[in-house]
Amino acid sequence: MKRLLAAGLFAAGVVMAHEVQVDTAGTTATVLTLRYADGQPFAFEAYELYPAGSETPGQVGRTDAAGRIAFVADGRTEWRLKAWSGDGHGVDRPVSAISGELAVTAPAAETPRAALWLGGLGTIFGLFGLWQLYLGRKRR
Amino acid sequence: MHIPDGFLSPQTYLPAWGVAAVAWAWAGRGLARRLDETLVPRLAMLTALAYALGLIMLPLPGGTSGHALGVAVLALVFGVRLAFLAYSGVLLLQALLFGAGGITALGVNALALGLVGAVVAVALRRLLAGAGDTVAVALAAFVSLQVSALIVALVLGIQPSIAHREDGTPLFFPLGPEITVPAVLLPHLLIGLGEAALTVLVWRHARRKGWVAG
Q1: Which single residue of B43, B65, B118, B168 could bond B83 by disulfide (Cβ 3.0 to 4.6 Å)?
Q2: Does the domain spanning B10-208 belong to CATH 1.10.1760.20?
Q3: Predicted ipTM?
Q4: What sign for the dihedral angle of Cα A89, B108, B181, A55?
Protein backbone atom coordinates (compact mmCIF):
# COMPACT_ATOMS: atom_id res chain seq x y z
CA MET A 1 0.00 0.00 0.00
CA LYS A 2 2.82 2.33 0.99
CA ARG A 3 4.60 1.52 -2.25
CA LEU A 4 1.44 2.19 -4.20
CA LEU A 5 1.00 5.56 -2.42
CA ALA A 6 4.66 6.48 -3.07
CA ALA A 7 4.28 5.54 -6.73
CA GLY A 8 1.11 7.62 -6.93
CA LEU A 9 2.83 10.64 -5.37
CA PHE A 10 5.77 10.22 -7.76
CA ALA A 11 3.42 9.99 -10.72
CA ALA A 12 1.57 13.12 -9.57
CA GLY A 13 4.90 14.93 -9.32
CA VAL A 14 5.81 13.92 -12.87
CA VAL A 15 2.43 15.06 -14.14
CA MET A 16 2.83 18.41 -12.33
CA ALA A 17 6.26 18.87 -13.90
CA HIS A 18 4.62 18.79 -17.34
CA GLU A 19 1.99 21.32 -16.49
CA VAL A 20 2.34 24.81 -17.93
CA GLN A 21 1.21 27.49 -15.55
CA VAL A 22 0.01 30.89 -16.65
CA ASP A 23 0.44 33.98 -14.46
CA THR A 24 -1.20 37.23 -15.45
CA ALA A 25 0.41 40.50 -14.35
CA GLY A 26 0.16 44.09 -15.41
CA THR A 27 3.49 45.52 -16.54
CA THR A 28 4.96 48.10 -18.87
CA ALA A 29 5.62 46.84 -22.36
CA THR A 30 7.21 48.55 -25.29
CA VAL A 31 5.16 48.48 -28.48
CA LEU A 32 6.88 48.76 -31.83
CA THR A 33 4.71 49.37 -34.88
CA LEU A 34 5.99 48.36 -38.28
CA ARG A 35 4.36 49.63 -41.44
CA TYR A 36 5.08 50.14 -45.10
CA ALA A 37 5.69 53.64 -46.39
CA ASP A 38 2.08 53.85 -47.58
CA GLY A 39 0.88 53.23 -44.02
CA GLN A 40 -0.14 49.61 -44.61
CA PRO A 41 0.76 47.50 -41.54
CA PHE A 42 3.67 45.08 -41.78
CA ALA A 43 1.25 42.44 -40.56
CA PHE A 44 1.85 38.81 -39.52
CA GLU A 45 5.53 38.94 -40.50
CA ALA A 46 8.38 37.29 -38.65
CA TYR A 47 10.64 39.20 -36.27
CA GLU A 48 13.47 38.67 -33.80
CA LEU A 49 14.45 41.02 -30.99
CA TYR A 50 17.98 40.89 -29.62
CA PRO A 51 19.23 42.65 -26.49
CA ALA A 52 22.11 44.90 -27.63
CA GLY A 53 25.32 42.89 -28.03
CA SER A 54 23.61 39.52 -27.81
CA GLU A 55 23.44 36.94 -30.56
CA THR A 56 20.57 35.12 -28.88
CA PRO A 57 17.17 36.65 -29.44
CA GLY A 58 15.20 37.74 -26.40
CA GLN A 59 11.95 37.42 -28.28
CA VAL A 60 10.86 35.95 -31.60
CA GLY A 61 7.45 35.86 -33.20
CA ARG A 62 5.22 37.53 -35.72
CA THR A 63 3.80 41.01 -35.82
CA ASP A 64 0.08 41.27 -35.16
CA ALA A 65 -2.61 42.38 -37.64
CA ALA A 66 -1.69 46.02 -37.01
CA GLY A 67 2.03 45.33 -37.55
CA ARG A 68 2.79 45.60 -33.80
CA ILE A 69 5.31 43.91 -31.57
CA ALA A 70 4.86 44.18 -27.80
CA PHE A 71 7.77 43.22 -25.58
CA VAL A 72 8.92 43.64 -22.01
CA ALA A 73 12.42 45.04 -21.93
CA ASP A 74 13.33 43.87 -18.39
CA GLY A 75 15.45 46.99 -17.82
CA ARG A 76 17.44 46.68 -21.06
CA THR A 77 16.88 49.78 -23.13
CA GLU A 78 18.90 49.02 -26.25
CA TRP A 79 17.67 46.28 -28.55
CA ARG A 80 18.09 45.25 -32.13
CA LEU A 81 15.03 44.46 -34.23
CA LYS A 82 15.12 42.15 -37.25
CA ALA A 83 11.88 41.75 -39.15
CA TRP A 84 11.35 40.37 -42.61
CA SER A 85 8.79 39.20 -45.10
CA GLY A 86 9.27 36.55 -47.76
CA ASP A 87 9.47 39.18 -50.50
CA GLY A 88 12.50 40.88 -48.97
CA HIS A 89 10.84 43.76 -47.15
CA GLY A 90 11.92 44.36 -43.60
CA VAL A 91 14.25 46.07 -41.18
CA ASP A 92 17.40 45.33 -39.24
CA ARG A 93 17.96 48.25 -36.89
CA PRO A 94 18.46 49.23 -33.25
CA VAL A 95 15.39 50.18 -31.24
CA SER A 96 15.03 51.71 -27.79
CA ALA A 97 12.73 50.16 -25.23
CA ILE A 98 10.76 51.91 -22.55
CA SER A 99 12.41 51.24 -19.20
CA GLY A 100 10.42 51.77 -16.03
CA GLU A 101 6.75 52.28 -15.54
CA LEU A 102 6.93 56.07 -15.64
CA ALA A 103 8.72 56.26 -18.93
CA VAL A 104 6.87 58.23 -21.56
CA THR A 105 7.84 58.14 -25.19
CA ALA A 106 7.42 61.02 -27.54
CA PRO A 107 7.31 60.47 -31.27
CA ALA A 108 10.77 60.89 -32.74
CA ALA A 109 11.29 64.22 -34.44
CA GLU A 110 11.32 62.86 -37.96
CA THR A 111 11.60 64.91 -41.11
CA PRO A 112 8.24 64.81 -42.91
CA ARG A 113 8.23 62.39 -45.83
CA ALA A 114 7.12 65.10 -48.24
CA ALA A 115 10.14 67.24 -47.30
CA LEU A 116 12.49 64.30 -47.91
CA TRP A 117 10.75 63.61 -51.18
CA LEU A 118 11.20 67.18 -52.34
CA GLY A 119 14.78 67.17 -51.04
CA GLY A 120 15.52 64.17 -53.24
CA LEU A 121 13.97 65.81 -56.29
CA GLY A 122 15.93 68.98 -55.53
CA THR A 123 19.14 66.96 -55.33
CA ILE A 124 18.48 65.31 -58.70
CA PHE A 125 17.69 68.56 -60.51
CA GLY A 126 20.52 70.36 -58.67
CA LEU A 127 23.13 67.80 -59.72
CA PHE A 128 21.95 67.76 -63.33
CA GLY A 129 21.90 71.56 -63.26
CA LEU A 130 25.53 71.61 -62.11
CA TRP A 131 26.40 69.17 -64.90
CA GLN A 132 24.67 71.45 -67.40
CA LEU A 133 26.68 74.42 -66.10
CA TYR A 134 29.88 72.40 -66.40
CA LEU A 135 29.06 71.50 -70.02
CA GLY A 136 28.22 75.12 -70.82
CA ARG A 137 31.53 76.38 -69.45
CA LYS A 138 33.43 73.60 -71.19
CA ARG A 139 31.85 74.57 -74.50
CA ARG A 140 32.88 78.23 -74.08
CA MET B 1 12.19 45.35 -54.14
CA HIS B 2 15.22 47.22 -52.87
CA ILE B 3 17.14 44.99 -50.48
CA PRO B 4 17.63 46.75 -47.12
CA ASP B 5 20.72 46.75 -44.90
CA GLY B 6 21.25 43.73 -42.70
CA PHE B 7 19.72 41.20 -45.10
CA LEU B 8 22.86 40.38 -47.10
CA SER B 9 26.04 38.71 -45.93
CA PRO B 10 29.43 40.38 -46.54
CA GLN B 11 30.22 37.42 -48.83
CA THR B 12 27.45 38.78 -51.03
CA TYR B 13 27.60 42.56 -50.76
CA LEU B 14 31.38 43.04 -50.87
CA PRO B 15 31.89 41.30 -54.24
CA ALA B 16 28.74 43.02 -55.51
CA TRP B 17 30.18 46.41 -54.56
CA GLY B 18 33.36 45.45 -56.44
CA VAL B 19 31.48 44.43 -59.59
CA ALA B 20 29.25 47.49 -59.36
CA ALA B 21 32.30 49.77 -59.04
CA VAL B 22 33.72 48.33 -62.26
CA ALA B 23 30.33 48.73 -63.95
CA TRP B 24 30.02 52.34 -62.76
CA ALA B 25 33.50 53.09 -64.12
CA TRP B 26 32.50 51.53 -67.47
CA ALA B 27 29.22 53.45 -67.56
CA GLY B 28 30.92 56.73 -66.65
CA ARG B 29 33.61 56.57 -69.36
CA GLY B 30 33.27 59.46 -71.79
CA LEU B 31 30.27 60.80 -69.90
CA ALA B 32 30.99 64.45 -70.81
CA ARG B 33 30.88 63.49 -74.48
CA ARG B 34 27.77 61.33 -74.31
CA LEU B 35 25.73 63.42 -71.89
CA ASP B 36 25.48 66.66 -73.85
CA GLU B 37 23.45 69.78 -73.11
CA THR B 38 20.37 68.57 -74.97
CA LEU B 39 20.23 65.29 -73.05
CA VAL B 40 20.76 66.65 -69.52
CA PRO B 41 17.27 68.15 -68.95
CA ARG B 42 15.58 65.04 -70.39
CA LEU B 43 17.66 62.67 -68.31
CA ALA B 44 16.98 64.82 -65.24
CA MET B 45 13.23 64.56 -65.85
CA LEU B 46 13.19 60.79 -66.31
CA THR B 47 15.58 60.24 -63.39
CA ALA B 48 13.22 62.28 -61.22
CA LEU B 49 10.35 60.13 -62.52
CA ALA B 50 12.19 56.93 -61.56
CA TYR B 51 12.95 58.40 -58.13
CA ALA B 52 9.31 59.33 -57.59
CA LEU B 53 8.01 55.97 -58.84
CA GLY B 54 10.23 54.11 -56.39
CA LEU B 55 8.62 55.91 -53.49
CA ILE B 56 4.99 55.47 -54.46
CA MET B 57 4.06 52.26 -52.70
CA LEU B 58 1.03 50.47 -54.05
CA PRO B 59 -0.86 48.03 -51.81
CA LEU B 60 -0.90 44.58 -53.39
CA PRO B 61 -2.99 41.47 -52.71
CA GLY B 62 -1.47 39.40 -49.91
CA GLY B 63 -0.81 42.33 -47.61
CA THR B 64 2.39 43.52 -49.23
CA SER B 65 3.34 46.67 -51.12
CA GLY B 66 5.25 47.30 -54.30
CA HIS B 67 6.32 50.03 -56.67
CA ALA B 68 7.35 50.50 -60.28
CA LEU B 69 11.02 51.17 -61.11
CA GLY B 70 11.31 53.32 -64.22
CA VAL B 71 14.58 51.63 -65.23
CA ALA B 72 13.24 50.33 -68.53
CA VAL B 73 12.14 53.73 -69.74
CA LEU B 74 15.52 55.25 -68.78
CA ALA B 75 17.30 52.48 -70.68
CA LEU B 76 15.08 52.64 -73.77
CA VAL B 77 15.44 56.41 -74.09
CA PHE B 78 19.06 56.92 -73.00
CA GLY B 79 20.78 53.54 -73.34
CA VAL B 80 22.15 51.11 -70.77
CA ARG B 81 25.11 53.14 -69.49
CA LEU B 82 23.26 56.36 -68.73
CA ALA B 83 20.29 54.46 -67.32
CA PHE B 84 22.54 52.45 -65.01
CA LEU B 85 24.30 55.57 -63.71
CA ALA B 86 21.09 57.53 -63.26
CA TYR B 87 19.29 54.68 -61.52
CA SER B 88 22.25 54.04 -59.22
CA GLY B 89 21.93 57.67 -58.14
CA VAL B 90 18.23 57.14 -57.54
CA LEU B 91 18.95 54.09 -55.38
CA LEU B 92 21.55 56.02 -53.38
CA LEU B 93 19.11 58.86 -52.72
CA GLN B 94 16.31 56.49 -51.74
CA ALA B 95 18.64 54.67 -49.36
CA LEU B 96 20.02 57.84 -47.76
CA LEU B 97 16.74 59.73 -47.46
CA PHE B 98 14.20 56.99 -46.83
CA GLY B 99 16.10 53.85 -45.88
CA ALA B 100 14.46 52.27 -48.93
CA GLY B 101 17.23 49.85 -49.81
CA GLY B 102 20.48 49.70 -47.90
CA ILE B 103 23.90 51.21 -48.38
CA THR B 104 25.59 47.84 -47.95
CA ALA B 105 23.11 46.38 -50.43
CA LEU B 106 23.55 49.24 -52.91
CA GLY B 107 25.92 47.23 -55.11
CA VAL B 108 23.46 44.34 -55.42
CA ASN B 109 20.47 46.65 -55.91
CA ALA B 110 22.28 48.71 -58.55
CA LEU B 111 23.40 45.62 -60.46
CA ALA B 112 20.08 43.77 -60.25
CA LEU B 113 17.76 46.69 -60.90
CA GLY B 114 19.89 49.29 -62.65
CA LEU B 115 22.23 47.25 -64.82
CA VAL B 116 20.44 43.97 -65.50
CA GLY B 117 17.08 45.74 -65.77
CA ALA B 118 18.49 48.17 -68.34
CA VAL B 119 20.34 45.49 -70.34
CA VAL B 120 17.29 43.21 -70.53
CA ALA B 121 15.01 46.10 -71.54
CA VAL B 122 17.29 47.28 -74.36
CA ALA B 123 18.06 43.76 -75.59
CA LEU B 124 14.40 42.70 -75.67
CA ARG B 125 13.33 45.93 -77.38
CA ARG B 126 15.82 45.17 -80.17
CA LEU B 127 14.89 41.51 -80.31
CA LEU B 128 11.19 42.26 -80.58
CA ALA B 129 11.53 45.20 -82.94
CA GLY B 130 9.52 43.34 -85.59
CA ALA B 131 6.53 43.01 -83.28
CA GLY B 132 5.81 46.72 -83.33
CA ASP B 133 6.86 49.49 -80.98
CA THR B 134 4.13 49.20 -78.39
CA VAL B 135 4.44 45.43 -77.97
CA ALA B 136 8.23 45.51 -77.96
CA VAL B 137 8.47 48.33 -75.41
CA ALA B 138 5.77 46.87 -73.17
CA LEU B 139 7.32 43.40 -73.16
CA ALA B 140 10.80 44.83 -72.65
CA ALA B 141 9.63 46.74 -69.58
CA PHE B 142 7.62 43.82 -68.20
CA VAL B 143 10.31 41.19 -68.62
CA SER B 144 13.15 43.43 -67.42
CA LEU B 145 11.26 43.96 -64.16
CA GLN B 146 10.69 40.22 -63.74
CA VAL B 147 14.35 39.41 -64.36
CA SER B 148 15.46 42.03 -61.82
CA ALA B 149 12.92 40.68 -59.33
CA LEU B 150 14.15 37.13 -59.89
CA ILE B 151 17.75 38.14 -59.21
CA VAL B 152 16.76 39.96 -56.02
CA ALA B 153 14.75 36.92 -54.90
CA LEU B 154 17.64 34.53 -55.60
CA VAL B 155 20.21 36.75 -53.88
CA LEU B 156 17.97 36.90 -50.80
CA GLY B 157 17.17 33.19 -51.01
CA ILE B 158 20.79 32.00 -51.05
CA GLN B 159 21.68 33.91 -47.85
CA PRO B 160 20.78 31.06 -45.45
CA SER B 161 23.07 28.66 -47.33
CA ILE B 162 26.08 30.97 -47.53
CA ALA B 163 25.98 32.64 -44.11
CA HIS B 164 24.86 30.65 -41.11
CA ARG B 165 26.02 29.51 -37.68
CA GLU B 166 27.38 26.04 -37.05
CA ASP B 167 23.93 24.85 -36.02
CA GLY B 168 22.52 26.11 -39.33
CA THR B 169 20.83 29.26 -37.95
CA PRO B 170 20.92 31.89 -40.72
CA LEU B 171 22.92 34.99 -39.87
CA PHE B 172 21.24 37.28 -42.35
CA PHE B 173 18.07 36.93 -44.43
CA PRO B 174 16.64 33.65 -43.15
CA LEU B 175 14.30 32.42 -45.89
CA GLY B 176 15.32 30.18 -48.78
CA PRO B 177 14.60 30.56 -52.51
CA GLU B 178 11.55 28.30 -52.31
CA ILE B 179 9.92 31.13 -50.36
CA THR B 180 11.59 34.25 -51.76
CA VAL B 181 11.16 33.48 -55.47
CA PRO B 182 7.35 33.21 -55.44
CA ALA B 183 7.03 35.90 -52.77
CA VAL B 184 8.97 38.42 -54.86
CA LEU B 185 7.91 37.35 -58.34
CA LEU B 186 4.15 36.99 -57.93
CA PRO B 187 3.50 40.60 -56.83
CA HIS B 188 5.87 41.81 -59.53
CA LEU B 189 3.77 40.16 -62.24
CA LEU B 190 1.11 42.72 -61.30
CA ILE B 191 3.57 45.59 -60.88
CA GLY B 192 5.07 44.65 -64.25
CA LEU B 193 1.79 45.42 -66.00
CA GLY B 194 1.83 48.94 -64.56
CA GLU B 195 5.52 49.34 -65.38
CA ALA B 196 4.87 48.24 -68.97
CA ALA B 197 1.93 50.63 -69.41
CA LEU B 198 3.90 53.54 -67.95
CA THR B 199 6.95 52.76 -70.06
CA VAL B 200 4.88 52.68 -73.26
CA LEU B 201 3.29 56.01 -72.31
CA VAL B 202 6.60 57.76 -71.63
CA TRP B 203 8.26 56.07 -74.61
CA ARG B 204 5.56 57.41 -76.96
CA HIS B 205 5.97 60.88 -75.50
CA ALA B 206 9.75 60.65 -75.95
CA ARG B 207 9.30 59.57 -79.57
CA ARG B 208 6.87 62.38 -80.30
CA LYS B 209 9.41 64.83 -78.92
CA GLY B 210 12.16 63.29 -81.01
CA TRP B 211 14.20 62.16 -77.99
CA VAL B 212 14.64 58.69 -79.41
CA ALA B 213 15.41 57.52 -82.89
CA GLY B 214 13.29 55.17 -84.93
Answers
A1: B118
A2: yes
A3: 0.86
A4: negative
